[in-house]
Amino acid sequence: MGFEYAYIYGAVCPERDLGEALVMSHVNTQTMQMHINAISLCIPIDRHGVLVTDNAPWHRSLVTPQNMTIIYLPAYSPECNPHENIWEYMKNNFLSNMVFEDVNHVMDACCDAWNRLSAETGRIKSIATREWALIN
Question: Model-level pTM?
């Protein structure tokens, strides 16, 4: 018996207290491009989005939409990525101590976790805001 996986592709805007996510059964450049395109659609017409991400191989060959810029973090610097706190919160509050029947159950739990996080007014802002990144 092999393993099956679920991946949450997620992005947040702490300023607007919003997030966007896709739950997928695999990870590669094509699925990441789908995520980038979905993020692009969430950016207000009068704004320019900045995506902070690590240097995973599937992050490096993306076609960047005109309304966003991608900033790649240095290797081994997860503390610089505010999204790491989002993952930690989701794992600790919605996805731990569970037994899953199959990969569909895992994917449903990931969707539920993201929806619960997004429904908590102020939660994304409180977890992902970095004072050093604010522009006055």
Answer: 0.86
The string of DSSP codes covering 36-61 is HHHHHHHS-TT--EEEEE---GGGTT
Low-confidence ranges of the chain (pLDDT < 70): 1-2, 132-136
Task: Identify the pLDDT of residue 75.
Answer: 80
Domain membership of residue 17 as a residue range: 7-133
User: Tens digits of per-residue pLDDT, 48-60?
Assistant: 999 988 887 777 7
The answer to whether position 53 is within a domain reads: yes
- The CATH number of residue 82's host domain is 3.30.420.10
CA 77 remoteness from chain centre: 16
Domain count, the chain: 1
Beta-bridge mates of residue 20: 11
